[in-house]
Amino acid sequence: MKRKLLSFILVLTMVVALAGCGSTKTETAPTKKPTPVGEKVGVAMPTKDLQRWMLDGFYMKEHLEKAGYEVDLHFAADDIPTQVSQIKNMINGGCKVLVIASIDPDSIGTVLDQAKEKNIKVIAYDRLIMNSDAVNYYVTFDNYKIGVKQGEYIEEKLGLKDGNGPFNMEIFADDPYDSNGKFFYNGAMGVLQKYIDSGKLVVKSGQVDFTIVGTPNFSPEYVQSRMEDIISANYTGAGANLDAVLCTRDILAMGVTNALEAKYRGSVYPIITGQDCEKESVNNILADKQAMSVTKITSISASKVVEMIDAIMKGEEVPVNDTETFDNGKGVVPSYLCEPVVVEKSNYKEMLIDTGYYTEDDLK
To answer: What is the pLDDT of residues 291-300, one digit of tens each?
Structure first.
C-alpha cells in the first residue's frame, strides 16, 4: 500500500508540475446547481489502436465515476459512421455532457445539432470539431508548441544557431484533414524555415509544402514508400547523408525508420522527431533509431476535462486559458491548452516510467 500511495503522490506531483499552461481565464456556466449525483457523461474516442486514446478514455471514465458521474465510453475503431452512431446514442441516452475526440473534425457537425437542441454541452478533445456552433469548449495541448519543440530539437542537435551546416533534411507531416496537423507543421517550420531559406538546411527531395508532405490517414506504409523513393532518388551516392527527418508523429517516424533500414546506407544516421511516445517509438528511442518524441501526458489533459465537466454540471466557472485562437468556422471556441514535454533517451524514465505512463515491462 505504501508503494502504491507514494507512486500516486509522485504522479500527482508531476502532473501538477507539468501542467503549466499559462494564466487561466474562466467561462461561467449558466446556472448554479448542487453537486450532481449520477448525471451521465458521454466520452467518444476514435480508436483503441493507439495507446494514448485508451489511456485518455479510461482515465476520464475512472475519475468521472469517482466524482459520482455515470460514464458512457466508446471507441469507434477509426470509423466515422460508427462514431456518429455512438454520439447519437449518447445524445438519446441522456448524457448531459459529451467529450469527443473526433475521427474527422468535419464529419459530426450535423449530429451535434441534436446535442445543442437538448442543451447538451460539448467538449472537443484534442481535435477541434469544425463548422459547428454546438461546440462549447476545447481541450488540447498547445499543438503549435509541439511543432516548435520538434523544430528546436533539430535546430539544437545540428547546431544551426551556431552557423553549422549545410545539412540535409526531409519532412513528414500529419494527414492534411486532421485539424491539428497544420499547427504542428507551422510550429516546426517557424523554427526551421529560415535555415532552409539560408541554405543551412537542404530538403533534397524539394518536398516542403504541407500539401505535399502530409500523410493520408497517417499511414506508416505510405510514409515508408515515400521515404524509400526519396532515398533512392537523393541519398544513394557517396556522401549523400540524411541528417534529420522532421516527423510530426511517432507513427510517421516508424515508417521512416523502416525505410531507412531497408534502403539507407549513409554514414550518418538522421535525427528523427516524433510525437505521442508510442511503445514502438520509445523502444526505437532506446535503440537510437529515433531521437525524441514530444508527448502529451494524458493525465494532464484528461484531468482538465474532468475538472471542466464538474464545473459545467455544478454551474461553476469553467477553466479556460485561450479565448482567441481556435475558430472552428462558426466562432471562437473557449479552450484550455496544456503543455507538452520532450522525451528522449536521457529522460524517458522520469517522463514515462516514474509518471506511470508505462512500466518497464511495457517497453520490453
So the answer is: 999 988 877 8
